[in-house]
Amino acid sequence: MIGPGWHGDERDGKASPDRPRRCAVVTGTRAEFGLLRPVMHAIARRDDLELLVIAAGSHLVSPALTFRDVKAEFDVTDSVPMQTAGRVGRWADVESLSKGVARFGRSFAGHAPDWVVVLGDRIEAFAAATAASVGGLALAHIHGGDRAEGVADEAMRHAITKLAHLHLPATETSAERILRMGERPEDVRVVGSPAIDGLAGVEPVGDARWKEMGEPEVVLLMHPVGRTDEAEEHACAVVLEGLGDARVLALHPNLDPGRGGIMRALIAAGSNVTLVEHMKRDAFVGVLRRLGRSGGAMVGNSSAGLIEAAALGCPSVDVGHRQAGRERADGAAWWAGEDAGAVRDAVSSARASAPFEGPHPFGDGRAGERIASALADSDPHDERRLRKRCVF
């Protein structure tokens, strides 16, 4: 399945001077798609790059089927099913990972990308990175070098770094970690986080939609950290206890092991909790912007509380250890252990604080442009790059 304009050797996928470089951007989750959107748009705007969008993993799992969000905004080149609806757990993830590696391999062989682009640390990114590396394709990794020590994905992020040929970290600190892992300095470019891109152009959610959501005082986003359903249910129930009578807008957690327990706690919560299955990126940003302006706070263990919320001037409370080690803007987030009293005190302090206005460690909102430039400027067929060599 070689697209129009191909004039190279279909067996090795090498580009010729008269066609753009094909960039296969892999998106596997709703959260990471929000970050990849500005990257995809920046690639699509360039004449020297061609965007191939591959939607995978949890995008294709009902009931949310966030694949539709991807398809509404981009032409989807291929899809890679991995997870099975209703099957959640570590061994289910192992099976999904193996399916993803095989299916990504077939996709890459058919579409012959020059670059495969992945973000973060999820099993979808790891499966695509593994297939690209073993298949001899150039791999670009966004948000490598970060730390998030509270989840098993931490190891996968660093494993992807060792598979990748072009590193696009969000911060100088993350870049330094990548260099300490033995990667060549010429292959590491600090670009900022695409999570910051486009935030300034999103307006606060309107009055009508705000009322439909119950005029929340808190947005709650709790993801599992690999514990049993029972342990995750207890942890979420304790956080809800700490929120007391506050009006809460709670989003469904991701598909990681323990999701069922969090869902049980949210469903069992009182009438002051409004539960939302899925919210598109711009709508979520609009809610955070209005929440910050109305004296509310984001609570949970999502990286959005440390990155997007801070950039939007919305106070946040980071619960538990899922984001342990991740960089954050000074004075923009409060930490609370999974104790009801600690959550209550942290939320009270956050809501009483002034909006954060300091420099953000994750950049200035131009990451997408820098990433596209790096893909255009870096030769994906350079043998010195493809022959991985540690420079310890």
What does this structure look like?
The protein has 392 residues and is of the alpha/beta class. It folds into two domains: 21-198 and 365-386, Glycogen Phosphorylase B (Rossmann fold, 3-Layer(aba) Sandwich); 201-352, Glycogen Phosphorylase B (Rossmann fold, 3-Layer(aba) Sandwich). Helix content is 39%, strand content 15%. Strands 3-2-1-4-5-6 form a six-stranded parallel β-sheet, with helices on both faces. Strands 9-8-7-10-11-12 form a six-stranded parallel β-sheet, with helices on both faces. Helix 9 (259-268) links the parallel strand 8 (248-251) and strand 9. The protein is globular and about 60 Å long.
Label the structural class: alpha/beta
**CATH architecture assignment of the largest domain:** 3-Layer(aba) Sandwich
Strand segment tally? 12
List low-pLDDT spans.
Answer: 1-15
Name the helicity range: 25-40%
Radius of gyration: 21 Å
